[in-house]
């Protein structure tokens, strides 16, 4: 057993070094903007850049809108599929997995072809239309993660009994979803929301091909025109992603702790 444990820890250590050493090297390089000294000058330059503030703020707003729209679509769908149409579950799961199978560049070219300025619905011909198209594209990209999270949460509760109890008290479908179902799957919804946020905040293909100034294209532009700032920007992006993953673990652990106490 001792030998197996040693090799297991060795594999974990090797994997950790494989992932952490490049990040440490990138962080070290980002601190060398001022010659002969370590400093956060690259981070100061990035954070003070008006283009960073504009693109990052835009991506944050777009990510929040994506989360809200994704919740409005996924929670009722997953709920009614489990409650009324369980036979449709394989079909819905297949549909939600399509964004993982079809490359984003294929999807966005399809959007451009369908919604160009010569089509019946010329969304790409205006600023608002392009942003709406980008929003729906991001909702589609987040479907595999949001749907899986919500469906897992619904699996842990007895939605049939909760629905019957709420209906016996006179609650309608909207009230059942918002007051009864959503609070019971709130942690699962948050998990999907944090994953969605991490995906949208750095997405490049959709934003670049739709010619939208968001955080993803800004990072690529910075990488082609600066030396130290791209490393600082990459560290910031990794920190945002890790913060989202940490929040998922935190809320999941809190949910399990609350369940045990009850």
TrEMBL record:
GO terms for cellular component: plasma membrane. PROSITE patterns: ABC_TM1 (PS50928). It is found in: Cell inner membrane; Cell membrane. Coiled coil: none annotated. It is a multi-pass membrane protein. The chain crosses the membrane at residues 55-79, 91-114, 126-147, 185-212, 232-252. It comes from the Bacteria. Pfam families: BPD_transp_1. Its main location: membrane. Keywords: Cell inner membrane, Cell membrane, Membrane, Transmembrane, Transmembrane helix, Transport. The keyword Transcription does not apply. Residues 56-251 form the ABC transmembrane type-1 domain. GO terms for biological process: transmembrane transport. The keyword Transmembrane helix applies. Belongs to the binding-protein-dependent transport system permease family. This is ABC transporter permease subunit.
């Amino acid at each position: 057993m001792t030998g197996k444990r040693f090799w297991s820890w060795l594999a974990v250590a090797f994997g950790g070094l494989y992932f952490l050493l490049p990040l440490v090297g990138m962080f070290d390089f980002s601190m060398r903007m001022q010659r002969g000294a370590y400093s956060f000058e690259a981070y100061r330059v990035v954070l003070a850049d008006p283009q960073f503030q504009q693109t990052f703020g835009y991506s944050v707003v777009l990510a929040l809108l994506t989360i809200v729209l994704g919740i409005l679509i996924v929670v009722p769908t997953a709920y009614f599929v489990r409650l009324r149409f369980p036979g449709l579950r394989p079909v819905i799961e297949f549909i939600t997995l399509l964004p993982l199978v079809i490359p984003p560049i294929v999807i966005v070219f399809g959007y451009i072809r369908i919604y160009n300025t010569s089509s019946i619905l010329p969304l790409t011909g205006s600023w608002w239309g392009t942003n709406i198209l980008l929003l729906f594209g991001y909702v589609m990209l987040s479907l595999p993660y949001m749907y899986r999270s919500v469906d897992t949460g619904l699996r842990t509760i007895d939605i049939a009994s909760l629905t019957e109890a709420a209906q016996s008290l006179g609650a309608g479908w909207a009230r059942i979803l918002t007051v009864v179902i959503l609070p019971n799957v709130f942690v699962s919804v948050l998990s999907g929301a944090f994953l969605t946020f991490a995906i949208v905040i750095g997405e490049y293909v959709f934003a670049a091909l739709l010619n939208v100034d968001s955080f993803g294209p800004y990072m690529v532009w910075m990488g082609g025109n600066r030396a130290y700032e791209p490393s600082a920007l990459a560290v910031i992006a990794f920190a945002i992603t890790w913060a989202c993953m940490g929040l998922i673990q935190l809320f999941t652990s809190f949910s399990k702790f609350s369940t045990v106490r009850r």
